[in-house]
């Protein structure tokens, strides 16, 4: 028992002396509590932040393509938004049937037309304007109901590729609406080859 007590005291004295020696000879800025806490932790690999793409696409459009995104409005506060090559346009909700018809008629050949509803395209968009949009290739413009969300991309004077989504509609349904009286926003996005225009 005396031998064990002597060994314990000797080990304690050696540990104290070793601690004193390290504290006296190691510079204070070389060891910190934070550095000691890091010992034994596994290194964390951090992925680089993803590069932002035009119109917030998940992946970039191939070279020689235009990027676009059309987002319908939703509710009273969420305006329709159109992005083309990172240029953003926020649409107000007033009646623009006449202006829209003039714009479509006066647009030169080789023009891309991007459209979206915000409030109510069923009553605010006049029949003449709907007919003009239908002539551009819309299959849903005449199906718009009260407060339907609708987005559409069309080309004047050339044909869009068959593999892009050109139109989308979401009807108001009181049992499924995201907002009071309005359905959820909808969007279409994609890439248009520049050589088509």
UniProtKB/TrEMBL annotation:
Keyword Transmembrane helix applies: no
Record-linked InterPro entries: FAM3, ILEI/PANDER_dom
First-listed, main subcellular location of the protein, grouped into a coarse class: secreted
Subcellular location(s) per record: Secreted
Pfam family for this entry, one: ILEI
Gene Ontology MF terms in the entry: carbohydrate binding
Family stated for the protein in its record: Belongs to the FAM3 family.
Name of the protein: FAM3B protein
Organism field: Sylvietta virens (Green crombec)
Gene from which this protein is expressed: Fam3b
């Amino acid at each position: 028992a005396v031998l064990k007590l002597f060994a314990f005291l000797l080990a304690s004295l050696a540990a104290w002396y070793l601690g004193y020696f390290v504290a006296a000879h190691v510079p204070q800025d070389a060891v910190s509590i934070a550095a000691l806490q890091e010992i034994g932790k596994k290194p964390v690999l951090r992925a680089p932040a993803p590069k932002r793409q035009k119109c917030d696409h998940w992946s970039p459009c191939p070279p020689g393509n235009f990027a676009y995104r059309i987002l319908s409005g939703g509710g009273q506060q969420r305006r329709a938004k159109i992005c083309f090559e990172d240029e953003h346009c926020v649409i107000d909700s007033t009646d623009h049937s006449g202006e829209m018809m003039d714009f479509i008629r006066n647009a030169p050949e080789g023009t891309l037309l991007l459209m979206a509803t915000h409030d109510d395209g069923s009553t605010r968009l006049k029949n003449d304007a709907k007919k003009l949009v239908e002539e551009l290739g819309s299959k849903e413009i005449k199906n718009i109901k009260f407060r339907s969300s609708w987005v559409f991309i069309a080309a004047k004077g050339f044909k869009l590729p068959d593999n892009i989504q050109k139109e989308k509609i979401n009807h108001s349904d009181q049992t499924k609406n995201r907002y009071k009286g309005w359905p959820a926003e909808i969007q279409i996005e994609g890439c248009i080859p520049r050589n088509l225009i």
